[in-house]
Each structure stands twice: as C-alpha cells, then as structure tokens.
C-alpha cells in the first residue's frame, strides 16, 4: 500500500508539472480549465483543487501573475508599445490592462515604465553613485538543496520553481520555513537569452531524497543587496551592483554563481512588496 501511495504522489506531481509547462508555453494563448484538465489527464471536477493545493494559488491567479510579470519586464526593459504589451498579456484594451496592472503594481503602465523601482537603479548607475543602496558583506554556509535546472530567460525561471514545487509538496519537503533560492550562472548581457543557465532550489536538511536532483550552494563571503520590488526591475539592480558598487568596493567577484534568496512569495505578495536578497560572491 505504501508503494502505491508513493507512486500516486509522483504521478500527481508529474501531472501538475505538465500543466505548469503548458501554462508557460502557451501564456499568450487562450486558456481554459477544461483544456488544462486534459493536459493534466485528471478529472475536470477535481484537478483544479489538486493544482491549487500543490501550487498555493489558483490557475487563474497563476496566469494573471505570470502575464503581468512578463508585461512588467517589457515595460521596464524594452521600448515595446503599451498597447502591444497589453494585447500580449491577454487584455483586449489598454484600459483593461491599465486597471489590472495598477491593481498589482500600484502604478499605471506608463508611470511604472517612467518611475518604477528600476528607474532608481538606473539613476544611481548614471550618477555612478556607489552609495546609492546599502550593501552588506556577509558570510554564508554552503546549503544543501533539491533543484530544478532552467535554461532560458531568467524572467521565466518561475517555470522551474513551479515544477520543483509540484514535486516537493507531495514529498513533504515544503514547510512554512522553507527557503527558496535561485542560482544564476551566466551574465544576461553577455550570453544569449536562450542559453542562460539557472536553477530553482529548495533548501533541505539532510540528504537529497531519491528522485530529486541535488545542488549544494557555495559557502563563503558575499555582498548582499537587499532588494524590494518587482522581479522585472532587478536587471537594473544587478547593473548597479556590478557596474557601480563592485568597482568602488575594493572587492573582487569570485568565480561562483550569484544567488537570490526569496524572502516572500509572489503567490501572496504584491509585486512592489516582494523582497529578494541578491548575493554576489566576493573576495579581497
């Protein structure tokens, strides 16, 4: 009986994982619950309850969050027309998009593009203001994680986190104290977007359970930039940290990947209140 239960758990994880993949691959298409039930190969009556319990939010909330996150990225990091961004986010009018975006991000799309948190880092970068934001030097231990690798835009690592969550929840590895970490190996300004390597990680205690991929983060000295705001704005925080703070700091970057510690969850936190510790490995 125990073997059958474990098999069922992994089966449910795989089914919800297929839905996560499908949502990311078809985010700009029309989506409905019956179609996603077919993707999950589960009962139309019950599959959505399973998804919500395993992912921590409804499918509608996931789709809305991911679409607005992509829209915020395009507003902050491209010159795309706002009407085009609205359409790609699934809104038939710019007005409807504007209302939805302001509800989540606290500003209209135009105001966000002009004065979102990314603009403060841009200003500090242009002014070569190395003291513009507080950076702490901290010592971290190595951390044992289960991991899901991701290749492609860092803005789409949510796919890997969704997959990891779908596997970790039924295995009993997720608690209220669980720490989620992103590991980022490449420079998005130097490596083609489709080739960027990263990993979604969940810190665990003890050995990596069977069926999961393990990853151990490097311990040592890190420069910690505590960032608050939408993930879409973080590109300019990185540019300030690497291009302004680091050259003035007296430290050298160490040949280890950058880490991001996520201190709250986009599933239940407004984008403007998301807290992330960006950790750059450094040495003298």
Describe the protein.
It is a single chain. This protein is of the alpha+beta class and 284 residues long. The chain has two domains: 2-114, Orthogonal Bundle (Arc Repressor Mutant, subunit A), CATH 1.10.10.60; 135-283, Multidrug-efflux Transporter 1 Regulator Bmrr, Chain A, CATH 3.20.80.10. Helices cover 43% and strands 19% of the residues. The protein has ten helices and nine strands. It has helices spanning 2-25, 33-40, 47-55, 59-77, 82-88, 94-105, 109-115, 117-126, 158-168, 234-249, and strands at 135-140, 144-151, 180-184, 197-203, 213-216, 220-228, 252-253, 258-262, 275-283. Strands 1, 2, 3, 4, 5, 6, 7, 8 and 9 form a nine-stranded antiparallel β-sheet that branches. Helix 4 (59-77) runs antiparallel to helix 5 and helix 7 packs parallel to helix 8. The chain is globular. It starts with a helix and ends with a strand.
The total count of helices amounts to 10
Helix content percent band? 40-55%
**Strand-residue proportion:** 15-25%
Main pleated sheet: 9 strands, antiparallel
Mean pLDDT: 91
Number of DSSP strands? Answer: 9
Our measurement of the CA-to-CA distance between the termini, rounded to an integer number of angstroms, reads 57 Å
Output the structural class. alpha+beta
> Using only CA atoms, what is the Rg?
20 Å
Oligomeric form: single chain
Name the helix and strand elements from N-terminus to C-terminus, one letter apiece: HHHHHHHHEEHEEEEHEEE
When the domains are counted, the total is 2
Question: Which CATH top level class of the largest domain fits?
Answer: Alpha Beta
What's the CATH topology label of the largest domain?
A: Multidrug-efflux Transporter 1 Regulator Bmrr, Chain A
CATH superfamily annotation of the largest domain: Regulatory factor, effector binding domain
């Amino acid at each position: 009986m125990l073997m059958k239960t474990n098999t069922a758990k992994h089966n449910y994880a795989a089914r919800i994982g297929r839905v996560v993949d499908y949502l990311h691959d078809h985010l700009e298409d029309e989506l409905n619950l019956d179609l996603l039930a077919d993707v999950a190969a589960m009962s139309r009556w019950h599959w959505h309850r399973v998804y919500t319990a395993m992912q921590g939010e409804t499918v509608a909330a996931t789709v809305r969050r991911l679409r607005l996150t992509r829209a915020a990225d395009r507003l902050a990091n491209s010159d795309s027309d706002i009407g085009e961004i609205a359409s790609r986010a699934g809104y038939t009018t710019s007005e409807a998009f504007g209302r939805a975006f302001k509800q989540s991000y606290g500003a209209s799309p135009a105001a966000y593009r002009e004065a979102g948190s990314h603009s403060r880092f841009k200003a500090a970068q242009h002014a070569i203001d190395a003291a513009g934001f507080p950076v702490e030097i901290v010592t971290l231990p190595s951390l044992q994680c289960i991991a899901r690798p991701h290749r492609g835009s860092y803005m789409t690592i949510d796919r890997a986190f969704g997959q990891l969550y779908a596997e970790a929840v039924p295995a009993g590895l997720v608690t209220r104290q669980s720490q989620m970490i992103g590991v980022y190996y490449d420079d998005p300004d130097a490596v083609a977007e489709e080739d960027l390597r990263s990993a979604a990680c969940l810190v665990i205690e003890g050995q990596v359970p069977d069926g999961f991929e393990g990853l151990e983060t490097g311990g040592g000295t890190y420069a910690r930039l505590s960032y608050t705001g939408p993930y879409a704005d973080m590109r300019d925080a990185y540019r300030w940290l690497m291009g302004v703070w680091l050259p003035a700091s007296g430290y050298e970057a160490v040949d280890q990947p950058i880490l991001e510690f996520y201190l709250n969850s986009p599933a239940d936190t407004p984008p403007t209140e998301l807290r992330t510790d960006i950790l750059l490995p450094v040495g003298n």
